[in-house]
C-alpha cells in the first residue's frame, strides 16, 4: 500500500495564518494569499513553549492563592479564592456552576501543564513512544484551551445577577488578573508547540539545534 507524499517532498509549506499550502520552490518570504510570513517550522518551538508554560505556571500559584472576588451580601463582605468560591457554590446548591468553575479554573490548567510537559520532554528525548497518541493529546490540549475563560464568564454572570437582584455587590480581586494571565500564557504555549516534532526522526529534527542556533544568532 503506497503512502501519500509528504509536504516537504512536494516542497510545500503551510501558512500558519490562513492555512494555505504555499509553493516554496522560489523560497517566498510571505504567503501570497494573506501576506503572513512563511516558516517551514515554528521558529524556536521548544524554547518558546517552555518559556510560556513556565510563565503560566508561575502565575498559576497566585491565581489560586489570592482572592478572585469580594462578595458583599446584606452588608457583610468576604473575599473568595477560586477553590473557596467552588465550595461556596457547591454548599449553596449551585453544583453545576461549582463544577464548571472547578473544571475550567483548576482541572483544565493542570491537565495542560502535564500534557505540555509530557510532549516537550518526549520530543527533546527523540522518543518514538505513542506518537499517534501524543499527536491526539496535543489536539486535545488545543481544544480545551478554547474553554479556559469559561469560569471568568461565570463569575461575571454571577456578579451581574447579584447586582440585578439588588442582593449585594461583587468586586474583582487580584487573583482574577493572575488567572487571566495563566489562560493567556497556556494558550501561547500550546500555539508555540510544533506537533510535527513528534514525528521527526533523530538526526533530522530541527529542534536539536534550536538552542545553539539562537545562541549563535546573538
Automatic annotation (TrEMBL):
Keyword annotations of the record: Cell inner membrane, Cell membrane, Membrane, Transmembrane, Transmembrane helix
> Could you tell me which Pfam families the record lists for this protein?
PqiA (PF04403)
Q: Which InterPro entries match?
A: PqiA-like (IPR007498), PqiA-PqiB_transport (IPR051800)
What name appears for this protein in its UniProt entry?
A: Paraquat-inducible protein A
Q: Where in the cell is it found?
A: Cell inner membrane
Instruction: Please tell me where this protein is predominantly located.
Output: membrane
**What broad taxonomic lineage does this protein's source fall under?**
Bacteria, Pseudomonadati, Pseudomonadota, Gammaproteobacteria, Pseudomonadales
Which positions, given as ranges, span the membrane?
50-69, 97-123, 144-164, 176-193
- Superkingdom of origin organism: Bacteria
Amino acid at each position: 500500500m503506497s503512502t501519500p507524499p509528504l509536504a516537504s517532498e512536494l516542497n510545500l509549506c503551510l501558512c500558519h495564518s490562513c492555512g494555505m499550502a504555499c509553493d516554496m520552490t522560489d523560497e517566498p518570504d510571505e504567503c501570497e494569499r494573506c501576506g503572513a510570513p512563511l516558516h517551514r517550522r515554528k521558529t524556536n518551538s521548544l524554547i518558546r513553549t517552555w518559556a510560556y508554560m513556565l510563565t503560566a505556571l508561575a502565575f498559576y500559584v497566585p491565581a489560586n492563592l489570592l482572592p478572585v472576588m469580594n462578595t458583599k451580601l446584606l452588608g457583610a463582605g468576604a473575599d473568595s479564592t477560586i477553590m473557596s468560591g467552588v465550595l461556596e457554590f457547591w454548599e449553596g446548591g449551585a453544583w453545576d456552576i461549582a463544577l464548571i468553575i472547578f473544571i475550567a479554573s483548576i482541572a483544565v490548567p493542570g491537565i495542560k501543564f502535564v500534557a505540555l510537559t509530557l510532549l516537550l520532554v518526549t520530543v527533546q528525548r527523540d522518543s518514538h513512544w505513542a506518537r499517534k497518541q501524543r499527536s491526539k493529546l496535543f489536539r486535545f490540549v488545543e481544544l480545551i484551551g478554547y474553554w479556559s475563560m469559561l469560569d471568568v464568564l461565570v463569575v461575571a454572570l454571577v456578579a451581574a445577577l447579584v447586582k440585578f437582584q439588588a442582593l449585594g455587590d461583587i468586586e474583582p480581586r487580584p487573583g482574577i488578573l493572575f488567572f487571566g494571565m495563566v489562560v493567556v500564557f497556556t494558550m501561547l504555549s500550546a500555539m508555540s508547540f510544533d506537533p510535527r516534532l513528534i514525528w521527526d526522526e533523530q538526526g533530522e529534527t530541527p529542534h536539536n539545534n534550536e538552542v545553539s542556533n539562537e545562541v549563535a544568532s546573538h
